[in-house]
Amino acid sequence: MIYCVEDDSGIRDLMIYTLNTAGFEAKGFSNGASFWEALRENTPELVLLDIMLPGEDGISILKRLRESGNNVPVIMATAKGTEYDKVIGLDLGADDYLAKPFGMTEMLSRVKAVLRRVSPVPQSEVLNLGGISMDTTQHIVIADGTRVELTYKEYELLRKFMENPGRVFTRDQLLTSIWGDSYIGETRTVDVHIGTLRSKLGRCGDCIETVRGVGYRLGAEK
Asked: Comparing C-alpha atoms, which of 81, 29, 16 is closest to residue 55?
């Protein structure tokens, strides 16, 4: 099931028709209230979410989803040229975006690509390294015996490092992996997030090593 949250009935009907024709099951919603009501009954495989909505906008809906721990894949629909909304959406945990006006072929392509990325069910596990413990099922991080609250991007960065101990990642590799191929921004974004991640991890943050001129890696416990 795919949920389409779009207040323009013409666009919404065309999206649903296209998805149904392609073999998907889809439902449409004109606002956040009707979307939340449906979500209480059933969690879809993916959400196509317009940013400009009456009442609660798409950014607020996405933020509430992620803060509640709901990781349903989300593709944001943004007005052409609204770079700020696109960046904010991706940083809050959107999986991809569509710039309006978009074609139905492009929409289908992005829906299929996102579903392919999320279809393998990761094996639940607890990662331990350098005084840090990460429960990938419950998204809980413990550093030096204390639970640490991380943002979505900080958590994904730490997970990337813990799943690949000792491996050096360039800033560009981290941007592509965590922020997505469509992210347009400076590599300084990675440095800022690494800095806040280290700070939140306390002394355990020293395990995230800077490899001068290259990038970052998670080293041995210090």
From this structure: 29
DSSP letters, 171-208, are HHHHIIIII-TT--S-THHHHHHHHHHHHHHGGGGGGE
Per the CB < 8 A criterion, the answer to whether 27 and 52 are in contact is: no
C-alpha gyration radius of the chain: 19
**The CA-based dihedral angle spanning residues 121, 122, 126, 127, taken in that order and rounded to the nearest 10 degrees:** -170
Q: Is 214 helix (H, G, I), strand (E, B) or coil?
A: coil
According to the CATH classification, is domain 149-218 in 1.10.10.10? yes
User: Nearest Cα to 4, choosing from 43, 66, 47?
Assistant: 47
Q: What per-residue confidence (pLDDT) applies to 121?
A: 56
Query: At residue 98, what is the residue type?
Result: L
Q: pLDDT below 50 — which residues of the chain? A: 222
Cα 88 to the chain's mean position, in Å? 11
The CATH architecture to which 2-118 belongs is 3-Layer(aba) Sandwich (3.40)
**38 vs 49: CA distance, rounded Å:** 14
User: In the prediction, which pLDDT does 116 show?
Assistant: 87
Structure confidence at residue 91 (pLDDT): 79
